[in-house]
Structure formats: C-alpha cells, structure tokens
C-alpha cells in the first residue's frame, strides 16, 4: 500500500495565500457526502514544522468534520524548531490552507498561540484572514457553562518541578517521537493502523502520570479561582475530560502522538475524538482509498 510521500515543498508547489481564491492545496480536499457537524471543535499542539506532526491524519480529520466555532489552542506552528531547522512539507502547508479555508466558509475561528508559537502572541486582539488571535478566550457552551480557553504553558512556572514533558524539544521526548514514526511507518507498510508508542509509554511511566495529574489540578484550581465553570487547554499532549473540585477540566490532546480533538455537541455535551481509532474503524476499502 503506497504511503504519502513527505517532501519539502518548493515555493512553487505551495498554495499561494496571497491569491487565496485561486489557490489549491497539494492534497485536494476529500469530498465526503456530509461532514460531521459539531457546535465547537478545539485542536492544539499540531507542531507544524516538525517531523513529529501527523499532518496527514489532521488533514483527514479536517476533511471529515465541521463546526460553527473552532479554537486553535496553541502550538499550531512550532517556531522553536523551525528556527533551528526549516522543515515545511506540502502537507503542513495544506493544514494551514484548510484552516484559512474554514474561516472563509464562515466558521468562527479563534487562535490562541502557545509557547512554541508565542511569536504570534504579540498580535493578540487582531484578526488575520478571518482568524481572531487572542491570548485567551471565554467559551459559552450550549448548556450555559462558561469555559476558560488557554494553551496551558502559563502554569509551567508552577509545574516546573515535573516539566520533562512540558518542553517538546526535550531530547528523550524527541527520540521517542522518532521511534514513534519508525514504528508507524512499519505498521503502515503492513497495513496496520496508527499506534501511539509514546502515549503507551507515558501511561506506564510513574513520573509522567504524576506530572499530568498535577498539571490538571493546577489548571482546574486556577480556573475555579476565576469563577468559570471549566477550562479547555492543551500543552501537555494528553487529552482528558475530568471534573476536579467542581471544575470541568478539558484537554484537547495533540496531533503529534495522540491525534485527538475536543468537540462540543449541539446540546453542550463534550467529547474527545480519537482520530486514529476513527480511521481504523472505517471499512477496509475506505482506508486503502485514503492511503492511496
Ligand atoms: Mn505547548
């Protein structure tokens, strides 16, 4: 089964954002009979510009779902890594194209930069291409709850003692991501579905588990102190829906390992979508068609 070839795109191959109406993505948008609709979608920690980014899976996600509102909860583009080494395959450009296209189609788009794309924080309060850039936001759910939306690195100072995971640039983590890629290239080669190595490793490392629950508690308490009903964040690459001391804690996960999104249904019900599982659950012929 052929896999998507990832090459560095030349300028000529990239979609032209200055002439958006006539520009086309490298991978054409998939025509699905009807996109699954949600009231709200939150995604974060895409890390475009790094090899760890699962852009193909995110493209598949974006082509299958739609929403009235979409929050980009930080670390969308990895400015730290791009500065060290320029890496920008066509698929990464296609993600940006699809996000801009969504704004054009009328989805309310809010971009809250994280620590890896903090360079965009200076534009907080401004709108670019129909995407509002904000430092944080308050989201009101269909069932009337107020949720504070932020990236989550704001709490690094407090959770610093256990920050091995907080910085994606960390050597051990990067090595694990390389291994994750190899394992999945092998699995793809033999028609096996995507499997997150680091997700499984993290769940088994005691310190990682302690770090994650500490982070969740710190964030939930901070949100509770601000008088909101809940909080939506990203940053630690661990999707979760939890109630902590009367506060709803939501984390939308990431598109490096977990490939998850947080969604709000039209009745206010919240859910984490595990996109690798959704792809794996599709009819076999559909999977072949997508990979070809
Ligand atoms: Mn982050």
Automatic annotation (TrEMBL):
Q: Which Pfam family is one of this chain's hits? A: Metallophos
Supply one GO molecular-function term.
metal ion binding
Q: Which domain of life is it from?
A: Bacteria
Question: Which CDD domains would you find in this protein's record?
Answer: MPP_YbbF-LpxH
Domain Calcineurin-like phosphoesterase stretches? 39-238
* Keywords, ordered alphabetically: Cell inner membrane, Cell membrane, Manganese, Membrane, Metal-binding
This entry carries the following GO cellular component terms, namely: membrane
Keyword Oxidoreductase set for record: no
Listed name of the protein? UDP-2,3-diacylglucosamine diphosphatase
Say which species the protein is native to. Sphingomonas lycopersici
Q: What is the lineage of its organism?
A: Bacteria, Pseudomonadati, Pseudomonadota, Alphaproteobacteria, Sphingomonadales
């Amino acid at each position: 089964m052929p896999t998507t070839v990832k090459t560095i795109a030349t300028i000529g191959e990239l979609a032209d954002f200055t002439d958006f109406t006539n520009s086309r993505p490298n991978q054409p948008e998939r025509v699905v009979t009807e996109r699954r609709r949600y009231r709200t979608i939150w995604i974060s920690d895409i890390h475009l510009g790094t090899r760890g980014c699962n852009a193909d899976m995110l493209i598949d996600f974006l082509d299958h779902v739609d929403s009235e509102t979409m929050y980009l909860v930080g670390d969308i583009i990895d400015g730290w890594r791009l500065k060290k080494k320029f890496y920008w395959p066509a698929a990464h450009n296609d993600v940006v194209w699809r996000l801009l296209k969504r704004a054009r189609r009328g989805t309310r788009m809010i971009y809250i930069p994280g620590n890896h794309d903090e360079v965009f924080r200076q534009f907080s309060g401004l709108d670019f291409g129909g995407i509002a850039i904000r430092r944080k936001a308050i989201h009101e759910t269909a069932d009337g709850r107020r949720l504070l939306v932020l990236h989550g690195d704001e709490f690094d100072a407090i959770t610093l003692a256990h920050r091995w995971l907080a910085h994606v640039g960390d050597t051990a983590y990067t090595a694990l991501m390389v291994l994750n890629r190899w394992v999945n290239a092998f699995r793809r080669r033999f028609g096996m579905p995507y499997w997150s190595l680091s997700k499984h490793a993290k769940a088994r490392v005691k310190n990682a588990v302690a770090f994650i629950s500490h982070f969740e508690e710190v964030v939930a308490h901070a949100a509770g102190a601000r008088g909101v009903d809940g909080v939506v964040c990203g940053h630690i690459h661990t999707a979760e829906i939890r109630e902590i001391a009367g506060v709803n804690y939501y984390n939308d996960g990431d598109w490096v390992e977990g490939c998850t999104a947080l969604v709000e249904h039209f009745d206010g019900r919240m859910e984490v979508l595990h996109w690798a599982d959704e792809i794996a659950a599709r009819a076999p012929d559909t999977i072949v068609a997508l990979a070809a």
